[in-house]
Amino acid sequence: MKKTAIFGALTVAGLAAGAASAATLDDVKARGTLNCGVTTGLVGFAAPDANGEWKGFDVGVCRAVAAAVLGDPSAVEFVPTTGKTRFTALASGEIDLLARNTTWTFTRDVDLKFEFVGINYYDGQGFIVPKALGVSSAKELDGATICIQTGTTTELNLADYFRKNNMNYEPVPIETNAEGQQQYLAGACDAYTTDASGLAATRAAFENPQDHVVLPEIISKEPLGPLVRHGDNDWGDIARWTLNALIAAEEYGVTSANIEEMAAGTDNPEINRLLGTEGNLGEMLGLSADWAKMAIAAGGNYGELFEKNIGENTPIGLSRGLNAQWTDGGLLYSPPFR
């Protein structure tokens, strides 16, 4: 089993090294579309609507990068990936960017040869159970059957948590959130565990969400963010600074509603550099001067994307919490645009 895991890691790393030898920016421009890896369907983060159009918080990152590079937020080919297929898809070059509720870890960064370009959601792993089970704490789940997505940090965290608390469980392996939801509702498992944001999205999709309880324990740190292949630093810079542009725009009060006005020039040099009316930041990235303006206009700044897709006024109902700006007591903080 260990040999298989090591071989798999080396295979992905080898694919990544090969795919990164070509400049991704040139490929995307020549193709005219960004191939963006997303989840197979998690409402609020990435899922097709009734018309087949992809919507969600992670989808917003994909569209912002497409807008920055190609000037068109709709120039995206969304590629659904599972916990098992996502890394091979990125390493092989099938996708240019992975924006799919993926946790930044040491081994994914160093061993699998990927480059996380930032954190777009600070999360942690939790549990959901039927209210009828009568459980109010994860520490009451000794002996439970638990639905768990394979090939994820969630799988490893679950094993660590139960071992640390001298408890036993029976895993019910699943590959996608849709399968997990189906198995959980069918009674194939007592509990479902994944990132707390994913649990909120899953519960919101239930016919009777009030019949299910998200337990209070958060058993891990799950910094989620987009990633690219190692070795193509120019492309990594574009993805990284596009995400930073969305975060900085919220801090500086640049929104999809006022961006045209602010792009005409302000008395804040940082905003002017961000929007391309001062300096040559776009040229440094190999992009147009208004790259960040295009990215922000695509779906709004970070706060707009959050509130529109997963915020407290949506069925997902997430508060900003750790994902608030640093000026509001959260962890969001963009390096300076200078």
Radius of gyration: 20 Å
Strand order of the largest sheet: 10-9-11-8-12
Q: Which structural class matches the secondary elements?
A: alpha/beta
Main sheet, how many strands, which sense, barrel? 5 strands, mixed
Q: What portion of residues belong to β-strands?
A: 15-25%
Count of runs of 4 or more consecutive helical residues: 14
Question: What is the 3D shape?
Answer: globular
Separation, N- and C-terminal Cα atoms: 49 Å
Work out the number of β strands. Answer: 14
Helical percent range?
25-40%
Give the low-pLDDT segments: 1-11, 16-21
Succession of helices and strands: HHEEEHEHEHEEEEHEHEHEEEHHHHHH
Q: Report the average pLDDT across residues.
A: 93
Secondary-structure blueprint:
Layout: H1 2-19, H2 24-31, E1 34-39, E2 47-48, E3 54-55, H3 57-70, E4 76-81, H4 86-91, E5 97-98, H5 106-110, E6 114-116, E7 121-123, E8 125-130, E9 144-149, H6 153-164, E10 169-174, H7 177-185, E11 191-195, H8 196-204, E12 212-214, E13 222-224, E14 227-229, H9 233-252, H10 259-263, H11 269-275, H12 281-285, H13 291-299, H14 302-309
Parallel strand pairs: 1-4, 1-5, 9-10, 9-11
Antiparallel strand pairs: 2-3, 6-14, 7-13, 8-11, 8-12
Helix pairs in contact: 3-9, 3-13, 9-13
